[in-house]
Amino acid sequence: MDVTITNIRKEFGQFPALHDVSLSVGSGELMALLGPSGSGKTTLLRLIAGLEQPTAGRIFFGEEDASLKSVQERHIGFVFQHYALFRHMTVAENIAFGLKVRPGATRPPTAEIRRRVSDLLDMVHLGGLEKRYPAQLSGGQRQRVALARAMAIEPTVLLLDEPFGALDAKVRKELRRWLKEFHDRTGHTTFFVTHDQEEALELADRVVVMSQGTIEQVGTADDVYDRPNSPFVFSFIGDSSSLPVSVKDGAVLFEGRRIGIGDDGPDGAGSIFFRPQDVAVAEDGDALRGRVIASRRLAGTRIAEVDISTNGTGHHIEIEVPLEAPVTVGGEIRFRLQHWKLFR
Ligand code: ATP
After folding, report:
1. How is the chain split among helix, strand and coil, in percent rounded to 5?
2. Residue with CA closest to ligand 1 atom 11
3. Distance from Cα 42 to the centre of ligand 1, integer Å
4. Ligand 1 centroid from CA 63, angstroms
5. What are the residue boundaries of the ABC transporter domain, all occurrences included (predicted)?
6. 290: Cβ below 6 Å to ligand 1?
7. Long-range pairs, 60-66, Cβ under 8 A, ≥24
8. Are 81 and 161 in contact (CB under 8 A)?
9. Closest residue to atom 29 of ligand 1, CA basis
């Protein structure tokens, strides 16, 4: 089912939690809603579910205006961060619950319910655990039961609100891969709230980057990482440094020094943004210089934090340096800026 959100605004009292949000999602797309705390991700999800009513704007499921429908009529599958399983019901009963209370549908015969539960258990790779109670499952298994229960109603749209947020890093990674595969198999239009950018970039067909109640950018992982359209997106996704600069005759100047050439925009002031890997360590005479303030080892590389100001303004940038390069904290480093993006 494709979903179209048009000019949604949501106010809580005087507080505008979402301003003029519009988004078109194709049938079967896996969309990540990514943004800092308070940016409006959960509010958008709750509006799609019908748990909140918009102050203005509409939400369409296919051609139909979902704004006029109740939560039940929307047939949404919902999974929250804290698995809301019924503790006194077995895994099978939890999943069957969705089938038995399906709104608008007559309750299927018992044999049919049993067969559907068994299919759903296979789908989430939990065959054999149907008689267990939630307390006898791991966190990752519980979230898969929650997902099976959400799928039992044959949802038009699947909404996942930080479903792996309460799990440890390793399980989270496993479930991420599993969810991707699950989505590819079942093909439900899915909205997935996360504040973990790695999760968003790895999982989603497209990422919706949100900030302060607005959508900053919608695009593939490559779009938002390689072609961020605003300083916010550039600094929110991945590691980056920024410097205030001026542009004159195509040269990019920082504190009067030329740090890059080839900008074809007009002269004026702005800020450049770049990633640690956009800076190359260089030895020759016209390379830029800075002082290493700190260095940290990552798996296959090292990141040096470098003070490049000449007059004590304290502008620091991060440079990726090869492990074998000699880097001493307090020492000088020479480098060249290879790529950057200028925002005016
Ligand atoms: P988080 O990552 O922390 O869950 P979020 O991006 O999901 O954040 P929302 O929960 O959508 O953010 O909240 C957006 C803004 O709306 C926040 O400033 C929040 O305080 C406010 N807000 C959300 N729900 C309500 C409510 N019921 N009443 C008043 N304000 C609310």
Report:
1. 30, 35, 40
2. 40
3. 7
4. 29
5. 3-237
6. no
7. 60/3, 60/4, 60/5, 60/6, 61/1, 61/2, 61/3, 61/156, 61/157, 62/1, 62/2
8. yes
9. 12
Alpha-carbon torsion, ordered 261, 266, 270, 272, to 10 deg: -30
Q: Whole-prediction pTM value?
A: 0.88
Q: Provide the ipTM.
A: 0.96
300: CB partners within 8 A, 6+ apart:
323
Cβ partners under 8 Å of residue 160, min gap 6: 78, 79, 147, 179, 190, 191, 192, 193
Half-sphere exposure of 44 (CA within 13 A, CB side): 34
pLDDT digits (tens, 9 = 90+) for 47-74: 999 999 999 999 999 999 998 888 888 8
Taken in order 33, 48, 168, 117, is the CA torsion positive or negative?
A: negative
125 Cβ below 6 A of ligand 1: no
- Average of pLDDT values for 130-138? 92
Could you tell me if the CB of 41 is within 6 A of ligand 1?
yes
How distant, in Å, are the alpha carbons of 30, 249, 285 from that of 120? 20, 64, 66
CA–chain centroid gap for 129, Å, is 31
Q: What is the pLDDT of residues 222-274, one digit of tens each?
A: 999 999 999 999 999 999 999 999 998 888 888 888 888 877 778 889 999 99
Does the beta carbon of 38 lie inside 6 Å of ligand 1? yes
Cβ(36) – ligand 1 distance below 6 Å: no
Amino acid 217: pLDDT: 98
